[in-house]
Amino acid sequence: MTVRQPRYSKEEHARRGTEIYDRQVRPQVEAGNQGRIVAIDVDSGEFELAEDSLAAANRLLARCPDAQIWCVRIGYPAVHRFGPRTLAVRP
After folding, report:
1. Quick one: which of 7, 19, 40, 51 is 20 to 30 A from 88 by CA?
2. Cα separation of 70 and 90, whole Å?
3. Mind listing the pLDDT tens digit for each residue in 64-87?
4. CB of 21 within 8 A of CB of 40?
């Protein structure tokens, strides 16, 4: 198994992934896919959509074995959340 090495700093990786998502991917996937995960190759702009980050990343790696992957949860500010969930309904 080959270990992929990061080609960018964390900040550059995040900047590239966010830019590609906002510019190219969001218009194609946002409608009807809230909560699903998009895995994006920050080099090529190729992406895969799935119910979870592992499935999306595996599909993308099957097509682009050297992908530098950035994941986004459609309609949410983060892919994963930490801490307890509250049951209160927000207005």
Report:
1. 51
2. 29
3. 999 999 999 998 877 876 666 665
4. yes
What b/e string do you get for 26-59 counting C-beta neighbours within 10 Å, with b at 16 or more? eeebeeeeeebbbbbbbeeeebbbbeebeebbee
Residue range 16-44: mean pLDDT, rounded: 96
Please report the sign of the dihedral spanned by the C-alpha atoms of residue 16, residue 68, residue 38, residue 63: positive
Which amino acid, one-letter code, is at 5? Q
Instruction: Give the residue-averaged pLDDT of 45-70.
Output: 96
Angstrom distance (rounded) from CA 85 to CA 89: 11
Residue pair 6/16 in contact (Cβ under 8 Å)? The answer is: no
Q: How high is the mean pLDDT of the chain?
A: 88
